[in-house]
Design a protein that fits this description.
It contains two helices and six strands, in the order ββββββαα. It is an alpha+beta fold. It folds into two domains: 59 residues, no CATH class; 39 residues. Strands 4-3-2-1-6-5 form a six-stranded mixed sheet. α1 packs antiparallel against α2. The longest helix has 22 residues.
Length: 104
């Protein structure tokens, strides 16, 4: 059986946050991984960046923009009220604009 070590890449650094993982689920803006005993580890504003079976690693990337995008996408695909979708889009765009301004 192939269990994975989970690495979290955040703010330019990477660290192991779980091991012996056999399950991963994106639940809104939270990513949940479970080890072989079913013990969950939850990471907010994260998504899977890479799965490497050869090295038995699952790499996650966490960033505030990821969470806002996932919230927007969920509302967009769930036939939510247009005002909720527009509000989520505004928050996503505002965060993106702020990140771009920091780069200048």
């Amino acid at each position: 059986m192939c269990e994975l070590s989970v690495l979290l890449s955040e703010d330019g650094a990477s660290r192991q946050i779980a091991k012996d993982v056999v399950y991963a689920l994106q639940n809104g803006d939270t990513l949940i991984v479970k080890d072989i005993l079913g013990t969950p580890t939850e990471v907010s504003s994260a998504m899977i960046a890479k799965v490497n079976i050869t090295n038995e690693t699952l790499t996650l990337i966490a960033h505030p923009l990821v969470g806002k995008f996932l919230k927007f996408f969920a509302l967009l695909t769930d036939e939510s009220d247009i005002s909720d979708i527009e509000q989520a889009w505004g928050q996503l765009k505002k965060t993106g604009d702020e990140l771009i301004l920091k780069k200048q």
